Amino acid sequence: MDNKQDLTNNYGRPVENDTSSLTIGEFGPTLIIDTQLTQKLAHLDHERIPERVAFARGAGAYGVFETTKSMKNYTKADFLQKEGAQTKVFVRFSTFVLSKGSSEVVRDIRGFHIKFYTNSGNYDLVNIHLPVFYVRDAMKVPDLLHALKPSPVTNLILPERTWQYFSKLPETLNAITYLYGKYGIPANYIQMEGHSVCVYKWLNEDGDVFYVKYHFLPQKGAAYLTKQQAQEIQKNTSASATNNLYSNLSNKNYPKWDVYVQILEEKNLDTFPFHPLDTTKIWDEKVLPLQKIGTLTLNEIPDNFFEYSEQVAFDPGSFVAGIEASESKLLQGLMFAYPDANRYRLGINYPFLKVNRPLDGIHNYQQNGQMDIRNQKGEINFFPNQESNSLKENTSNQYSEGKYFIKGVVISRFKNEYNDNFEQAGDLYRSYSEQEKTTLIDNLVNALQGVSRPVLEQEIYYFYKADPDYGKRVADRFNLNLKNIVLKYDQSL
User: Fold this and answer.
1) What distance in Å separates the CA atoms of residue 3 and residue 180, rounded to the nearest whole number?
2) Residue 99: which residues within 8 A CB-CB, separation 6 or more?
3) SS (H, E, C) the chain
4) Is 428 exposed, middle or buried (0-12, 13-18, 19+ CB in 10 A)?
């Protein structure tokens, strides 16, 4: 007995023949009235959606976050209240700069984005594999991406463009020292760290505010590739990280991360030697130690790559009660940029796609737009109204937002240049072993090949400001006189 489902066209009509076009005679011209042919061709023409401007190349998986320590003293977020509580998650790993078809062993920041499907809505947390980012203000992000991406003239990535941008922004030095050192090429996704970089606010039931950074540390240990190892892998595949992720999941070798937070009390916000919301800086673990709050486990390969890994849409402003945005200039800009990009790529109704939909659905009076799949009924599409089955506001303290006072004046484009751009980069350089320092210098010298003299000298001066040995090693490799460079740029200050 044949129990197979009939093949249909897009309107549900069973298809008699899905391999041959309708023609006049065996070899005659094809007829435009062959709607099955035109449907298939038209759908193929429209299958591609705009790729992400950043984090385009990626792969995702489902899993679970288990709370191992109650955080009720710090936040009223429901999924962090009880030890042993489990929350479904979707995680997408990615590279930052290049397009969907690019290599997964390039020297680049990696994305580690997580969607928590909690009982009171979705919480999206966007992380990268480094503990710092290039810039501290979202105003600079469009220019950063333009400088990192291919030339608008040749479509080639040109070092002069990237380093010219870096040379005008000393705040990029800390991330550069991470990226061109041993941390630049993660070996795979399952041994990759994740750091929120941005700071968030936690609020408890009493309204107390705490500033928080997240860290995801792989239980298998973090692993990185040298330039030579990456080149060997690239000879065989450009998708080594995706292959590794799905191979481990297929073999039930489920990757796990220990999840930590650093917590800063609101009253101590002004006691730092730098602004603690600066995304180009780390928080010293000796001052603010890591506190383990849970374990993240990935255990399921989505059954359709496009439907899940490509259509998952993260929003840094998607919070649950008890978690809010800090005043971070980078975070507050990204809270607009991410959902705006989602609307462009997927349409206004992207939250209703399966991978983005909250566990309890979405209940409001928004309507229409491209691909509206909500099946809304009735006359009422406004609030408030007098219908007996109307949606209602939840005014309990459980879902209230934090209250805080703001005092000050609007500052005209404050550049925030009081931060020291060199101290932490110098500390990082000095923490490297002699071999690691040599690797860093080799990678930088290779990356700076062909860069114009003024740009090169400016970067060397930044390296020197972080640590004199750092600058001297790069200058020596280019046969440049460090003393002359330092004298030139010290006088220009």
Assistant:
1) 58
2) 51, 56, 57
3) CCCCCCCECCCCCECCCCCCCCECCCCCCECCCCHHHHHHHHHHHCCCCCCCCCCCCEEEEEEEEEECCCCCCCCCCHHHCCCCCEEEEEEEEEECCCCCCCCCCCCCCEEEEEEEEEECEEEEEEEECCCCCCCCCHHHHHHHHHHHCCCCCCCCCCHHHHHHHHHCCHHHHHHHHHHCCCCCCECCCCCCCEECCCCEEEECCCCCEEEEEEEEEECCCCCECCHHHHHHHHCCCCCHHHHHHHHHHHCCCCCEEEEEEEEEEHHHHHHCCCCCCCCCCCCCCCCCCCEEEEEEEEEECCCCHHHHHHCCCCCCCCCCCCEEECCCHHHHHHHHHHHHHHHHHHCCCHHHCCCCCCCCCCCCCCCCCCCCCCCCCCCCCCCCCCCCCCCCCCCCHHHCCCCCCCCCCCCCCCCCCCCCCCHHHHHHHHHCCHHHHHHHHHHHHHHCCCCCHHHHHHHHHHHHHHCHHHHHHHHHHCCCCHHHHHHHHHHHC
4) buried
**Torsion sign (Cα): 210, 298, 98, 224:** positive
User: What distance lies between CA 427 and its chain's CA centroid?
Assistant: 26
Would you state the pLDDT for residue 69? 98
Residues 6+ apart with CB under 8 A from 82: 67, 70
More confident residue, 407 or 122: 122
C-alpha–C-alpha distance, residues 181 and 226, integer Å: 9
CB atoms within 10 A of CB 488: 12
252-261: per-residue pLDDT in tens?
999 999 999 9
pTM score, two decimals? 0.93
Pairing verdict, β 58-67 and 86-95: antiparallel
When pLDDT is averaged across residues 292-301 and rounded to a whole number, the result is 98
pLDDT at 416 over 60: no
For residue 129, give both structure tokens.
Answer: 């594999």
Reference 199, options 244, 142, 133; nearest CA is: 133
Q: In the structure, what pLDDT confidence band is assigned to residue 377 with cuts at 50, 70 and 90?
A: confident
Measured from the Cβ of residue 206, the count of other Cβ atoms closer than 10 Å reads 8
Integer Cα distance of 481 and 475 in angstroms: 7
Residue 78 Cα to chain centre, angstroms:
24
CB atoms inside a 10 Å sphere around CB 458: 21
